[in-house]
Design goal:
Layout: E1 6-17, E2 20-31, E3 35-39, H1 46-53, E4 61-66, E5 69-70, H2 75-81, E6 82-85, H3 97-107, H4 112-125, H5 141-153, E7 159-163, H6 171-182, E8 189-193, H7 197-203, E9 206-211, E10 214-219, H8 221-228, E11 232-239, H9 242-252, E12 257-261, E13 269-276, H10 283-292, E14 297-304, H11 308-329, H12 334-337, H13 348-351, H14 357-360
Parallel strand pairs: 3-8, 3-9, 6-7, 7-8
Antiparallel strand pairs: 1-2, 1-4, 4-5, 9-10, 11-13, 11-14, 12-13
């Protein structure tokens, strides 16, 4: 069977726990070989979505497909296609690393003749060869996370799903895990969730922001900035008074404002942040004006990219506004909620109702 272009397809997925809509009608697609980051505040529905994708939870309604196959229609097939590292990475603490991977290789039905090679490759990819005979319970957190990832990639699956793989790691370990995940690009489709935003930005091709069980933003980091950031910021290292700088900016455009300015350093330079409440490019004008100014000396000028944190806050704040609107005015029709997504809407044929076997199957748990 050939793998379709999208290894992960999710359509109108819902998961209800009692009165809570943990996942509330989310739809997205992931292309083969892409790395996708799931972002969202605590309780947004990231883990629940991941658990449905892996077949550990069943959806209340909607459909999740892995490699074109609905998860609930053939959980056995799906489990062979997916490597899953759950939140908190539960591991048997009394086993040795290689012993554990041997056990997992058997569980994953890797043919006996290929097991040794698969284990060695996973150990090598995760830089675990030197720890292969150590007892898992005696390993540091970083090593344990790598054992979890070695398990996820062991059977060379098409899809890897990792729930907060870098939680609690020091910056060195985060970089190691980030590089390891990046090395899977093109070979495997990867979904990771994390609260470490720079890590998600550096690793992922696409980011999906979830809040209250809904997708509130989706796209590349650049597309998300374009959607959620409504201002442009320049950073300039300048020698001169604030008044002179303000006057110089006013000659360019009245909307150029000094957002903040640092103290002067030993050479008399201060770093000023200049903000324009629009997506305008004043870089060249700023450069020309400041460089010929009789009293100001400019040491550097650069356009500052908004941190992903600002995107995250804007995306989730907007969603809270929607929730408030919902409470005040009743349910919001689906239309106005959708423009937050930066990707084109699927065509009607893509959204055509499909059978929903997930809702009918018993929970495998
Ligand atoms: P975090 O970043 O804290 O891991 P999350 O985005 O992964 O959060 P989920 O764990 O998916 O969020 O939880 C979404 C919502 O569903 C939360 O309100 C949570 O309390 C609820 N929930 C999750 N699992 C269950 C369950 N088994 N029973 C009842 N409620 C649940």
């Amino acid at each position: 069977m050939t793998t379709p272009k999208h290894t992960i397809e999710v359509e109108q997925l819902h998961k209800r726990f009692g009165k809570i809509d943990a996942v509330n009608g989310i739809s997205f697609k992931v292309e083969k070989g892409q790395i996708v980051g799931f972002l969202g505040p605590n309780g947004a529905g990231k883990s629940t979505t991941m658990r449905i994708l892996t077949g550990y939870n069943r959806a209340t309604s909607g459909i999740a497909k892995i490699c074109g196959v609905p998860v609930a229609a053939d959980p056995h097939y799906i489990k062979r296609r997916i490597g899953y590292m759950p939140e908190n990475n539960p591991l048997p603490l009394d086993l040795r690393v290689r012993e554990y991977l041997k056990y997992r290789a058997k569980m994953k039905e890797i043919p006996f003749s290929k097991r040794r090679r698969a284990i060695n490759q996973a150990l090598e990819s995760c830089d675990l060869l030197r720890a292969q005979d150590r007892i898992i319970g005696k390993l540091s957190k970083g090593f344990r996370q790598r054992v979890g990832i070695a398990d996820a990639i062991l059977a060379n699956p098409e899809v890897i799903i990792m729930d907060e793989p870098t939680i609690g790691l020091d910056p060195h370990q985060v970089i190691l895990i980030r590089d390891l995940i990046a090395s899977l690009r093109g070979r495997m489709t990867v979904i990771i969730s994390s609260h470490i935003l720079p890590e998600i930005e550096m690793t992922c091709d696409q980011i999906i922001i979830i809040n209250h069980g809904k997708i509130v933003g989706q796209g590349s980091p650049a597309e998300l900035r374009d959607t959620f950031i409504d201002h442009t910021t320049y950073e300039v290292e300048i020698h001169g008074t604030n008044k002179e700088l303000e006057a110089a900016l006013a000659t360019i455009a009245p909307e150029l404002l000094i957002e903040r300015i640092s103290d002067h350093d030993a050479d008399g330079f201060a770093t000023a942040e200049i903000r324009i409440k629009d997506k305008c490019d004043y870089g060249e004008k700023l450069f020309k004006t400041l460089s010929v100014h009789p009293h100001l000396r400019t040491r550097s000028l650069r356009r500052k990219m908004a941190p992903l944190e600002d995107v995250f806050l804007a995306a989730t704040r907007r969603s809270w506004e929607e929730v408030d609107q919902h409470l005040l005015e009743g349910p919001v029709p689906p239309g106005p909620q959708q423009p937050l997504q930066t990707k084109p809407e699927p065509t009607p044929s893509e959204t055509a109702p499909t059978p929903q076997p997930e809702a009918q199957k018993p929970d495998p748990k």
